[in-house]
Fold:
Amino acid sequence: MKKFALVSLVVAAGLLLAACGGAAQPAATEAPAPAEVSLFDLGGATITVAVENAYPPFNMISEATGEPVGWDYDAVAEICKRLNCVPEFTQAAWDGIFPAMEAGEFDMLADGVTRLGERELIVEFSIPYVTIGQVLLIRSDQTINDVEAFKADPQVLVGTQIGTTNELVAKENFPVDRIKSFEDFGAAVAGLIGGDLDAVVIDNVSAVGFIGANPGQLQAGPQLTSDEQLAFAFPPGSTLALSVNHALRAMEADGTLKTLNDKWFNPK
Structure:
């Protein structure tokens, strides 16, 4: 059982004992009162947060330090600072992550997740923290910069990540036999750099991340979409979504969210 759930159970148990416990015990034998927990003060609870560690700029392993870094790490740390909780990041594969969230295997999913109607049937979402679009990521030496030209060329192969909205957009724009879906975007980008693919369908902010990680090798090509809202995901019925919404609104109001978005999504 995760510590976030355990804290809630301790509080509930304390309330039940107070209602049904009979005669009061001497003060010397009373158990210490549990830490106060509310929607906006989680009492130091540990929150398990699922990430891929392969999706820059949201989450990745720094080549320089070997440590995980990214927007998710900074944003969740700030959220927990405001909510009095401790983030415990856990690496998880994207494929199968929504059934895992539905089953409550993690308290929170932070991985650049697009809010979709069908996803809202099985998980809770926070309010959006950024609106993004999708682009074709291409090599620096490619001169075709028109999506219709990519569509018209029967030799063009595009890559993307399986089970993502990027895969859906790829299928809306290209024949299925010209699409190769990978377990993660790192593998798709490696295929692009190596010449096995001609483009990768990817979020524009992630395109910036991969361009920065591969200096001089990649560029952003034509835009495909421009209106996807990204948010955190939670198990169904989770009250943590309400807590995170409170923190996100405060971060938006005081400029912290813009600062984080500018740092990771619009690097100078």
User: Anything to note?
Assistant: The longest helix spans residues 3-20. The chain has two domains: 3-130+229-265, 132-228. The domain at 132-228 is CATH 3.40.190.10 (D-Maltodextrin-Binding Protein; domain 2). The two ends are 43 Å apart (CA to CA).
